[in-house]
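Below is how a single chain appears once it has passed through the pipeline. First comes the sequence as given, then the structure the pipeline wrote out for it. We keep one example in the README because the format questions we get most often are answered faster by looking than by reading.
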Amino acid sequence: MPPSIPDNSTPATIQSLLRSAEQNLRRYGFADEALRSSEVLLGFVLSKSAADLIRDADQAVPPKLMERFFSLIDERKRAKPIAYLVNQKEFYSMPFYVDDRVLIPRPETELLVDKAIELIRTYGDPSPVVCDVGTGSGAISIAVKKNCPQAKVIGIDISPTAVQVAKTNANRNAVDVIYMCGDLLESIHVPLDMVLANLPYIPSHDIFSLDSGVKDYEPHLALDGGISGLSLIDALLGQAFDRLKSGGYVLLEFGINQDEELKEMVTEKSFEIVCVLNDAAAIPRVLVARKA
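Resulting structure:
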């Protein structure tokens, strides 16, 4: 792959670097986001906001920073997600550190957080015990705790390195969440009021048909939901029923065209379905059920 660094005969200003990077990314198929990606990466290297880049367009960029910038552009051309390049992703208006140990938080998962916060605020127990299963970066558990400080929030993940990232994010966002390493709810021995889960739900045979930025960089442990895509959710439901108090809730994020199968799975486990929520694209995305 040819280097991205522009000809030294052109002034290395913010404006010229952005133009060169944008052209590079367009040639590699990133037309729709070429300028935005360039701005984010240069802003990261220079510690400048988008407004700063416009204001300082004619400012010269030191050679070492220029080289670092185009090194990131080269990684972006190979489809590495920007969130991993800058080690940050915003979720629920909070900053989260991310790297390839954890899945990048998605906007649609905020729907699950919205509903969890709503239920906690109207729940009978003023200090409910909430468990986020497959916590990853800690996005769900931290967003819930930040908005419902009265709740006792536990985050659990089978990956020890993911738990490390979640702890880092809890400190960054100044919340007190209990994190532990474990397989689903096997390590939980206290009665729960609510179980939240954005577990892997992509069928194993679909993993390698995903976009390069996902299949080549995000952890497959956080993507692979088994043959049907719902294997882990099925296992969780049995454990959740045993650990939830009467009247407790389980909130599950799931994939496209999995709603009907998941509804059957939930009712077979003796939960009653409260609702199914659609995401911004009108796709069924979150199921809410209750232990009667």
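The mean pLDDT is 94.

See the next section for the split statistics.
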